[in-house]
Amino acid sequence: MIPATRAARPRADATAMLERVHESPRPLDLRATLQPLRRGPGDPCLRIDDSGLWLALRPPTADTTTATLHFSRVGPGSLGAVRVRAWGDGAEAALDLVPDLLGEHDDWSALDTSAFGPGGYELLGTTLRRNPGLRLTRTGRVIDALIPAVIEQKITSTEAFRAWRILVTAHGEPAPGPAPAALRVPPTAERWRRIPSWEWHRAGVDPRRSATAVRVASVAGGLQRTAEQEPRLPGVEVRRLLQTVSGVGPWTAAEAAQRSHGDPDAVSFGDYHLASVVGWALVGEKLDDDALVELLEPWAGHRQRIVRLVLISGVMPPRHGPRLTIQDHRRH
């Protein structure tokens, strides 16, 4: 069923507010669906406050335009109704992206849930029943998913989120409209290419990762086409194409494809914690990557959905080992 969307009449002034009410026939958990786009609690591109959720972005095919989206629930009794307000010269294009952002085309109906009952993977069934509004988001914007994934390679989340915050705050643009003061639109591909090496260094990004990010920005147009083709490219092909950029491996490609393409099968194999978390939640023991591949194989095509269910369940293995050491590359 196509969701109903009531649109306000567009205004001639591109900086004026536009508004739509997105009505979905299915439950929608707004925060859980958009949470993967948030790069830590201080993310300059996504903020949550008492009024709702603010997202600063560039429409997928318009690198030089900017927009701010504000999401809020229409009312407690609404099934999947969300009011979306938009500002900026990219406001109208950003509003057109809302169905994908809110996972309207994310179809879970083919997911095999036969093993979700007692005696099987009961946690998955319980989590799915408790979170009927969970969906996979799709931004359609490759560079804004791939560069932060490059920054996050082989370091702690604390380091990565700090680097992202420093670089976007310095090189992004203030979000249009009445957005929170610290909200920023991510840099353009051209701006990423022009960041001096010492600024990457000050942000804590080593030369290997900064060089990869610059290579990504240099071929941003070609990478963006992987999100624009119709019919949509299979996830495995998208991840293969992303990995044609030197320095982008399977983990980085999966992290990006999950967000930019809404890839339901992209699993971040090689992640420092993921195999342990999923293994503990589903079979009661920490696993390595090879065992995780085998465990998720029955759900091929939907493996990211299984991972999202595990992560939203909140079940975590006990911590007995040493934590990953935070490295300060700025002093090297």
What keyword list fits this structure?
Alkylbase_DNA_Glycosylase/TA, DNA-3-methyladenine glycosylase activity, Endonuclease III, domain 1, disordered N terminus, two-stranded antiparallel ribbon, DNA-7-methylguanine glycosylase activity, 6-stranded antiparallel β-sheet, alkylated DNA binding, single chain, 332 residues, globular
Quick overview:
This protein is α+β, with helices and mostly antiparallel strands.
Folded structure, characterized:
By secondary structure, the chain is of the alpha+beta class. Among the domains are: about 5-105; about 145-235, Endonuclease III, domain 1 (Orthogonal Bundle), CATH 1.10.340.30. The chain contains 15 helices and eight strands. It has helices spanning about 30-35, 90-95, 100, 120-130, 145-150, 155-170, 190-195, 195-200, 205-220, 220-225, 235-240, 250-260, 275-285, 290-295, 305-315; strands spanning about 5, 20-25, 45-50, 50-55, 65-75, 80-85, 175, 185. The strands form two sheets. A six-stranded antiparallel sheet has the order 1-2-6-5-4-3. A two-stranded antiparallel sheet has the order 7-8. Strand 3 and strand 4 (about 50-55) form a beta hairpin. Helix 4 crosses helix 15 and helix 11 (about 235-240) packs across helix 12 (about 250-260).
